[in-house]
Amino acid sequence: xxxxxxxxxxxxxxxxxxxxxxxxxxxxxxxxxxxxxxxxxxxxxxxxxxxxxxxxxxxxxxxxxxxxxxxxxxxxxxxxxxxxxxxxxxxxxxxxxxxxxxxxxxxxxxxxxxxxxxxxxxxxxxxxxxxxxxxxxxxxxxxxxxxxxx
Length: 150
Known about the structure:
Helix content: 40-55%
Number of strands: 2
Strand order of the largest sheet: 1-2
Number of helices: 5
Structural class: mainly alpha
Distance between the termini: 40 Å
């Protein structure tokens, strides 16, 4: 099973790959930046663990009970409680990882569009029109794709 850090690294790698393949929205670029920043932060390490069998705290190596004064309170930063995503087929509590359906809904809601390629009919029309003129053929394909994805 992957850790959150491994999942974030995988997501960042995919997002960076797609950002080089086609233009992506500002929201996607902000997500890439946020993932990079989060992955650069050091991992938080616990200083102790509660042992139910002995009803005591087992401290990290180097820490001992005698390092604390009698009745000294011991505080820990409370981890934020993430609400499950309400997106379609999602329920993720990780704000950076969502289902494909949830992401599709997000794309529609934010105006991001899916890539539209050429149909077989459009390819045949361009092939018939430009035949062996490779550069003209490539220019026509590029223009048609730009038109469909504008």
